[in-house]
Amino acid sequence: MQLFDGTITRYLSDIVDILIVSYIMYQLLVLLRGTRAIQLLKGITVLIAIWLISNIFHLSTLKWLIQNLFSVGVIAVIIIFQPELRRALEQLGRGGFLGRSRQIEDQIAAKVVGEVSKAVSHLSRRHIGALIVLERQTGLSDYIETGIQVEAKLSSELLKNIFLPNTPLHDGAVIVRNGRLMAAGCYLPLSENPFISKELGTRHRAGIGLSEISDAVVVIVSEETGHISLATHGNLERGMNEEEFVTRLYQELKPPEKTTQVFWARKEKEGKVKDE
């Protein structure tokens, strides 16, 4: 009986161990996704595959070369991945690596929606063009590096000043991460979709282009018409009024409902209906 209990305990420990490591690996991949580091990670994977092949076919010289590369690779990885490692440690320090509570995420979303909507309303009425990127799960560090580092608390006043005409940062995009304006004057990839309306300019094509390759929410204000648009997942919603914009933006940024909460809420509602 004791042997049986010991076997179950060992299996449970192995399962918990695998789940923890899997979760950490998943979080690391989410952290690296959308950055140059993911390309380096692919390169390391190729080297590991070559090393396995050299073992299987007894290619001693190739195996020796790869092993020596691995011996100095740890230091190289630390140097190359320094920005991502720093970001991971910062998130771990804030509790972000293991996930924030839904309440905190909802507060951040509400704050971002409030500040962005105030700025967008002001810019729209004055026909001032703007391109605002709101990062979600896909990392946008590569695009942040193309602009001017700001790393300031997000506010409508800051957004208004950045997009003032004839200022150095007016034509670029601003990127917002977790309620902070990380950079301004950023360059975004243009969409190559041939079905995009010809009347849309570079600002709209850049917003759509980034939304095609990431899960970011991109807010666009037209300089010619003052129209407010929202780009998500390669789709563009144009000509939104202020109320529609606020509603849609919050829908995109609010944290998802947990399945269990939705399930119990539905059961409760069904119970009330039956009682009635």
From TrEMBL:
Residues 82-242 form the DAC domain. Gene3D superfamilies: DNA integrity scanning protein, DisA, N-terminal domain (3.40.1700.10). Belongs to the adenylate cyclase family. DacA/CdaA subfamily. Its EC number is 2.7.7.85. This is Diadenylate cyclase. One of its GO terms (molecular function) is diadenylate cyclase activity. Catalyzes the condensation of 2 ATP molecules into cyclic di-AMP (c-di-AMP), a second messenger used to regulate differing processes in different bacteria. GO terms for biological process: cAMP biosynthetic process. The gene is dacA. It catalyses: 2 ATP = 3',3'-c-di-AMP + 2 diphosphate. It comes from Hazenella coriacea. Keywords: ATP-binding, Cell membrane, Membrane, Nucleotide-binding, Nucleotidyltransferase, Transferase, Transmembrane, Transmembrane helix. It is an enzyme of class 2 (transferase). The chain crosses the membrane at residues 12-32, 39-58, 64-81. Probably a homodimer. It holds the Pfam family CdaA_N. PANTHER family: DIADENYLATE CYCLASE (PTHR34185:SF1).
